[in-house]
Amino acid sequence: MENSGVPVDDSKFLRSADTNKKTGEIQDPVIKEVLQFVESRKEEILSTQASMCEDGSCASSNTITVEQLNNLVLEITLSEVWC
Questions:
Q1: Region Disordered: start and end of each range (predicted)?
Q2: Which of 14, 37, 59, 79 is the most exposed place for a label (fewest CB within 10 A)?
């Protein structure tokens, strides 16, 4: 999905679309699990990037691309649907 040519962050879209506006809670257990998985994998990826750059040989980054995030969403979604 794109917004005027800019890729949409699927995890932000899911969080926004599935959050109860009154309570601020995600009520769908599947969506909640997908988002928890994405967050934990994101942290793993960021910590791996940081450890690979500890020697100063590369520019450390504390970001992950929208494409990487969307691939994480697809990874968990597909595994949930077809397993």
A1: 1-20
A2: 59
